[in-house]
Structures are given as C-alpha cells and as structure tokens.
C-alpha cells in the first residue's frame, strides 16, 4: 500500500534514497531529496494547513538555509538548526513589519533590526529571548532615540537626537502594570510599540553617545 504514498528512488535496502515525492499519512506532502529513508538535502514540504517550507533538511529536520511560509501570510527566510529558526534570518510579519538579525531557539535573540511598517520607525539593537533588551537605537523619521531597553521597553537614561541639531537627555521611568501570562506561540507575533513615561532632563548640542559600562553596540 505504501507504494502509492511514495514515488521515487530507493537504495539497495529499499529505503527512500535520492529524489522522490511522498504523501504523508497526515495529508502533508514532500518532494525532494532523501537519504536512507529520511528527508535530507533540498526539498519542499507542503503542510495541509497551507504552510510551506522549501530549503534544506537533515534527517527529517529543517536544517541549513530555508524559507518557511506561514498560513497567516508571514514568512521566515534564513538559517535553521534542528527544526528551529536559529542563526541569521529575516521574518516578514503578516502586518508588513520585518525583523532582520539573529535568532536562537526559534526566537529573536542577539543583534537585530525591527522595522515597523506603519510608521517606518526602526529598532536597531539587542534582543533576548524574543524581547527587546539591551543597548538600542530607535530611528524615527526626523529624530532618533538612543538608550537601553529592559523587557521590551526603554528604561533608564537615554537621549533623543533631533535632525535639526540638538538632543534631549532624559530617562524613561518604569510604570507598574500587571501582565497577563504569555501563551506559547509558534508563529512570532509583531512587536507592539509602547509609550512608557519619558522624563526630560536637559537639551544640549550633539554629543557622542555610549551606553553606560558597555562598548558602543554599533561599530
């Protein structure tokens, strides 16, 4: 019966090996390279849900370079390790936002740039476990913010630099707010812009900036 489920090359042991097309018991389909019975090499995997992956496999797992199209219209193009988004990659969200940078264990992690499509603003900086955290720069149309983020929000001292040639120094104050619990979510969700409380301290002419106790994150 399984012959109808697979059309392709086999090795002397009868295992799927080489190039073939398969329909899986759950209705997904795969067309591409096999090695000793397992998806290995380049291939395209179509999910019954409408998702699609095209790229490299190693022993049945997404591994190497590949593009994943999600059912909501978002897509990830980049590195995979052991079925996880890991390494360097670009994610385009369903709302048109994009993240380009480092990934680890399926999440935005390391250095990366997030572009908000609606406003055209950009976050350039560090991420930890999917969340904005560490030294960063936010680039708006005619001004920038340089400072540090903590748990997805700017916190502590920083400055706004205005294109017309001055800067406003100040700090972000934390607002206490109860947070709901987060659900495990396979598809990364767009980042919501937040407006914490900014307390201005002084306005000066332009000065070089380095976050406290850290090398400048941008060479």
UniProtKB/TrEMBL annotation:
GO cellular component, one term: nucleus
Alphabetized UniProt keyword annotations: Cell projection, Cilium, Cytoplasm, Cytoskeleton, Flagellum, Meiosis, Repeat
PANTHER family given in the database record: RADIAL SPOKE HEAD 1 HOMOLOG
General function of this protein: Functions as part of axonemal radial spoke complexes that play an important part in the motility of sperm and cilia.
Pfam families, per database record: MORN
Biased composition annotated in UniProt, kind: Basic and acidic residues: 7-18
The protein, known as: Radial spoke head 1 homolog
Compartments where found: Cytoplasm, Cytoskeleton, Flagellum axoneme
A single GO BP: axoneme assembly
Positions of the UniProt region annotated as Disordered: 1-31
Matching InterPro entries: MORN (IPR003409)
Superkingdom of the organism of origin: Eukaryota
């Amino acid at each position: 019966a399984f012959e109808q489920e697979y059309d392709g090359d086999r090795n002397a042991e009868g295992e799927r090996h080489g190039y073939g097309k398969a329909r899986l018991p759950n209705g997904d389909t795969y067309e591409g390279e096999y090695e000793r019975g397992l998806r290995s090499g380049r291939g395209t995997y179509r999910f019954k849900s409408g998702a699609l992956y095209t790229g490299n496999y190693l022993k049945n797992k997404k591994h190497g370079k590949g593009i994943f199209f999600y059912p909501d219209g978002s897509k990830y193009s980049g590195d995979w390790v052991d079925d996880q988004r890991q390494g360097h990659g670009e994610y385009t969200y369903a709302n048109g936002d994009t993240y380009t940078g480092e990934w680890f264990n399926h999440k935005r992690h390391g250095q990366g740039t997030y572009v908000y499509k609606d406003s055209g603003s950009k976050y350039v900086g560090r991420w930890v476990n999917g969340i904005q955290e560490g030294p960063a720069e936010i680039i708006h149309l005619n001004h920038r913010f340089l400072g540090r983020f903590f748990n997805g929000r700017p916190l502590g001292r920083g400055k706004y630099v205005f294109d017309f040639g001055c800067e406003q120094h100040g700090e972000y104050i934390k607002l206490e707010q109860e947070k709901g619990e987060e659900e495990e979510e396979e598809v990364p969700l767009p980042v919501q812009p937040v407006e914490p409380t900014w307390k201005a301290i002084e306005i000066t002419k332009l000065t070089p900036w380095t976050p406290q106790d850290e090398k400048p994150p941008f060479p």
